[in-house]
Design brief:
This protein is mainly alpha-helical and about 280 residues long. The protein has helices at about 10-20, 25-40, 45-50, 55-75, 80-90, 95-100, 105-110, 115-135, 145-160, 160-170, 175-180, 180-205, 215-220, 225-245, 250-260, 265-270. The chain contains 16 helices and no strands.
């Protein structure tokens, strides 16, 4: 036989006394202030606070890298047969997909709270990548006289990363503390290194260097492998920059919250509960 639970009447009396002593007007004011503060925050910021930060930009980058390496290996596997090589050589420009997708992590995480510029930059680099791939599929584009044009397309794709870097500097110019953040400095250095690697890779491709006589270097470090190594290295630096900016998202959300009225009073209870 179950014994019914006994209600602690003394505890209920203490709750009643506590409610009588409570400042209900102040409690009502605090609750109202919290609701007003939450409504004053941009919906994109609140969504980023409530939901886990997405990882799809990294998967796009990894997918572009796998496609690039698959296309390149397919091309060089048929190198011995001239007719097959002419067809498969067009797939060697899958490296354009790697360059385009490598922009996704740093651009997305840098402008995650500004969807317009995020979509603008991602759409631009995607369009450049598609244009480069379409040009590479044209038979006339394989002629030697178009080598400089091909190199210019790759160089333009790499240098297009300068625009979001400058944009970030302008955005954070009014926040000197952002420029001193370790994640911001590391991310900027990674992106500068990325631009250098892409630029040098395009120049190596256009100039067809190194042109040396040593058999080992000519066969092991000829122009196509050197170009591929530089571009893959640039994609790796972009991946590292994306990881750095991903770590800086908590700081960015914090700054957007503190820009609002009444933020400092309610920041700790509203923001950190989501992390």
């Amino acid at each position: 036989m179950k014994v019914p639970k006994v209600v602690d009447l003394e505890a209920l009396q203490q709750i009643s006394d506590a409610l009588k002593k409570a400042d209900l007007h102040k409690l009502q004011s605090d609750i109202l202030t919290s609701f007003l503060f939450q409504k004053s925050i941009d919906s994109q910021v609140l969504q980023g606070m409530r939901e886990p930060i997405t990882r799809w930009p990294f998967f796009r980058l990894l997918g572009g890298a796998m496609f690039c390496l698959l296309a390149s290996s397919t091309c060089h596997s048929f190198r011995a047969t001239l007719n097959a090589y002419r067809i498969s050589a067009q797939s060697d420009y899958g490296i354009a997909a790697l360059i385009a997708t490598s922009f996704y992590p740093p651009v997305y995480y840098s402008f995650m709270c500004d969807p317009f510029f995020c979509n603008l930059y991602l759409g631009s680099i995607t369009s450049l990548g598609i244009t480069t791939i379409l040009f590479s599929l044209l038979p006339m584009f394989q002629r030697p006289e178009f080598r400089k044009i091909r190199a210019s397309l790759f160089f333009g794709m790499g240098m297009s990363g300068v625009a979001p870097i400058l944009h970030k500097l302008i955005l954070f110019w009014q926040q000197p503390e952002a420029l001193t953040q370790p994640w911001f400095q590391s991310g900027a250095l990674y992106e500068i290194l990325m631009g250098v690697l892409y630029g040098v890779g395009a120049l190596v491709y256009a100039a067809r260097v190194p042109a040396v006589d040593a058999w080992e270097i000519r066969h092991c470090w000829q122009q196509p492998p050197t170009f591929h190594v530089l571009v893959v290295a640039g994609a790796v630096t972009h991946y590292q920059a994306g990881l750095v900016y991903l770590g800086g998202q908590k700081w960015m959300l914090k700054e957007q919250i503190l820009d609002k009225p009444m933020a400092k009073e309610h920041y700790s209870t509203l923001l950190w509960s989501y992390f």
